[in-house]
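Weekly modeling sync, notes
Attendees: AB, CL, MP (scribe)

Item 1: holo prediction request
CL wants a bound-state model with fe (iii) ion before deciding which constructs to order. AB pointed out that an apo prediction alone won't tell us much about the pocket. Agreed to run with the ligand included and paste results into these notes for async review.

Input as submitted:
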Amino acid sequence: MKLLIVNIHQLINVRTENVLLRGASLAVLPILEKAYLLIENGRIADYGLMELLPIEYSDSDIPLFDAKGASVLPSWCDSHTHLVFAASRESEFVDKLHGLSYAEIAAKGGGILNSANKLNDTSEELLYNLSWKRLKELSSLGTGAIEIKSGYGLTVEGELKMLRVIKQLKKDSPIPIKASFLAAHTYPIEFKQNHQAYIDLIINEMLPVIASENLADYIDVFCEEGFFNVVETTQVCEAGKSIGLIPKIHANQLSVSGGVEAGVALGALSVDHLESMNQKAIMELASSNTIGTLLPTAAYFLRLPFQPARELITAGCAIAIASDFNPGSSPSGNMNTVVSMSCIQLKMLPEEAINAATLNGAYAMGLEAELGSIMKGKIANLIFTKPIPSLAYIPYAFGSNLIDQVMIKGVFQ
Ligand code: NIG
Ligand code: FE
């Protein structure tokens, strides 16, 4: 099955090799003006300038699609979400408008514990149906690969239920999904005074089932004051590593928690959030292979300081951006908003934000061989824009829906 796409205004993020983008290279976004793209069996088979379109393509009976001046870019790779949850939490949003802080809401049993109560009362089937709907919506907004975490169960049954829902989504979804095990999201009330007992539950009751049913790719911990400290984070991640899970850590969201350094020491694929950074954490991250994943919509929704993207990029860090879609701190999984906000508030250049949301996002899920750029052999998960005057218009026109069509595995949705 072939499809020849012609008259593409700009073919964005065209590459002949894969490289994790850090520092200045993040601002280099290769573009072909007036291009064609050949899709074969759901993958990118060839591309080039219209004026160099091979005669054997144009004269053959390959089905033709005229992009009529649309720009085409790789789908968003959203490497950090909590898409599986039972219910929204807009009443806490109103509590916050009345002056309560995120930590205060968490301390009175709201926040993650609120989501955990609701999730444990929700059937696996309903949870799946709710999650499937959300996934469909995000896919229509241009997300072409996604990571999804557990962490709203906090019981053996609840965590495994979440991971089984994610596993079923993986089977049914046309877009690649990666699963992170995040039982270490917060301590359940009954373990507040006995952290080690909960960690033991994670290690002895949950991880063996995860290993035998192949339920996760990554191990995640919320490393934060009042949640999991560095020692606890390390213990949980080491146990996850022993069954083959790669660490991806919630670090430095509310304070300089030591999570970045712990993540780097553990060889984490990414450390995520990074609202609170100091020079030491920035330099450690810059000199590591760990990706710093910035979640600007979470900072926005919680009115936290935005992530210091410019300092991170100047120091030479590899940066991805992701939605953190969850009911408590980022009730939107719209990556178009994330890209805009990264430019508007984090002062990333349009090229940097698009690279961070595509190729580096793919790296932050171990999917760089399959997705994240326009490269021969990669899966044709693509965004076709409405006519736009320039690349910068994508983050500039925040709030406008600039997506005309999305393609998944070479098929328009
Ligand atoms: O990534 N920070 C920890 N976890 C989520 C929020 C979870 C919640 O409030 O439900 C986050 O922001
Ligand atoms: Fe998160």
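Recorded for review: Residues 111-112, 115, 222, 250, 253, 298, 324, 326-329 surround N-(iminomethyl)-L-glutamic acid (ligand 1) (CB under 6 Å).
Action items: CL to compare against the apo run; MP to circulate these notes.
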